[in-house]
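Tokens for Protein N-acetyltransferase, RimJ/RimL family. Go.
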Amino acid sequence: MNRVRPHIRPLCASDAAAYASLRLCAIDEAPHAFASTREEEGKRTLDDIEARICSTTNQIVFGAFDGATLIAVAGLRRYPLRPVQQKGFLWGLFVAQAHRRNGVARQLIAAAIDHARAMGLTHVALNTDAENAGAIALYRSTGFEAVENEPCVDGIDDDTDREVEMMLRLK
């Protein structure tokens, strides 16, 4: 498989429709990995999505593009409460099936970490499914360490999921 050299950049308002489509694809593929359902996500307006993806002083969403096509995304958000504002949270990492195992996820993580440093963050956290060995291995290879395994009870479906919290300490 050829290694993709995507163009990585922050998403903007004009990317909202492409983001919405990719997000629905992600939810269809791994519904348990997202806090929202396909139905909830499908009800979001383009204004809602623009607000979610447009950069602010506390948040950025990176997109990886193969030509004009959005193939992957990853978000970084600063924790809003003053006592933990030096920490960030990596969220929503997803790479379209056809572009996996080409280094795209690693490039998005690197962009997010570089931006976290520029924001003055000292830590970046993330959560992932404890059963997702591939994601855990990827995050470990980029410097994240597991800090906690705890059951998360989903009261909606009576399912019990296990998540791993991982943390990267920035120097």
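The first strand starts at residue 7 and ends at 10.
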